Amino acid sequence: MNPLNFSRVLAFLLASAMSLPLSAQERLEMDVATGRTIIDGFEYDFNGIAVVDHERRIVYVVDAVEPLGVMALSIEDGSQIAIYGGSRGDGPGELRSLRSVSLSPEGVLVSGGGLINHWGREGNFIGAWRPDQSLAARVQGQCMVNGQLVVPSMEGAIRRKPDGFWELLGRRPGGNVDARIFGATHVACIGDIAYVLDEQLAGYSPDGGVTRLALPEEVEEASRIWRENLGGEAVGYPYHAVFGDGAGQLVVVVPRYAPSEVFGATIDPATGCYEIIVSPNPVVRRTHALIGMYRDSAVVAESEVEEQVINGERTRVFYPGGRRIALRPLRPAGGSPCPDSPGR
Asked: Would you say residue 14 has pLDDT above 80?
């Protein structure tokens, strides 16, 4: 989209941004004036696909300029540790598209075009798998539970057994997900539970148990407004991502262009207690994409806003690609933290 169109989009978002009634235990506001930059450069165009390895202090990101490779960057100094993938094709180690990246005990899982590739930490290729197409039309996310690969399906979640066959791990509460939004279904594993997020959030256990988790009303409201604003027959994917924060909490992220101050929320899967992550102002909400958590900070892909004169009017022009990956602290901004919260 050209800069003029983005200026119009930004103008609409700024005009329609609203403060939702917050009933969470605590508000956490992103402090964009402090923190530190991990990597910065005009040559980058980070597209929001990412995962954080808290143990090794690495963030894995995708640069849209090289869309078939995952870059491993040191959180400490931004140095590039490795690149996984990068080759176009349909064979092992190759990709036609890149939809998600996640961690395994051995290294990194990268999916795209229905194929999941597995690389070791040093960049060595381990293997590739294609889920049973009768259970998963295409791969849009994956994670590991007890050494077994788990991916979402329209029915719920499936796992790859040691014999190489795929089986249904658990059925989605309320029936199959709407096929029109299945391509935006996300998954994150914490401990021995796989959490699948589509229009709802559910946890799938190795024993086949399924538990539906309530999404915060502020997050649901932000998603609802986003989808309604699209109008017509346009399909709006309800949520942008779900991932672990490294301290046992889930993080659900709303679509980046949702007209809301809400980035998303952390959720304690054991108790359902949650904390809402909010922006200090509407511009920050659009220029800072929440892609991960690291200790007391949000990991964000930051894009640029610059002023231009368009048709005789001074206009803020928003460029969606992220040129910078940074850590921005989350500051308490009201309410009380969840019991046994890790603290920020």
From this structure: no
Least confident range from 117-121, 141-145, 161-165, 336-340: namely: 336-340
H or E stretch including 228? helix 217-230
Domain spans of the chain, in order of start: 3-335
Helices (H) and strands (E) in the chain, counts: 3, 27
Q: Give the 3-state secondary structure percentages of the chain, helix then strand then coil, rounded to 5.
A: 10, 45, 40
Q: Strand 26-30 vs strand 274-278: parallel, antiparallel, or unpaired?
A: parallel
Tens of pLDDT along 178-203?
Answer: 888 888 899 999 999 999 999 999 99
Q: Does residue 18 surpass a pLDDT of 70?
A: no
Residue 32 has pLDDT above 80, yes or no: yes
In the DSSP assignment, the letter for residue 273 is -
**What does the pLDDT read at residue 97?**
87
By the 8 A CB rule, do 296 and 312 touch? no
Residues near 244 by Cβ (< 8 Å), separated by ≥ 6? 188, 189, 190, 250, 251, 293
- What CATH architecture does domain 3-335 belong to? 6 Propeller (2.120)
Integer Cα distance of 138 and 187 in angstroms:
14
Is the pTM higher than 0.85? The answer reads yes
What distance in Å separates the CA atoms of residue 111 and residue 122, rounded to the nearest whole number?
18
Residue 139's nearest CA partner among 83, 106, 96, 171 is: 96
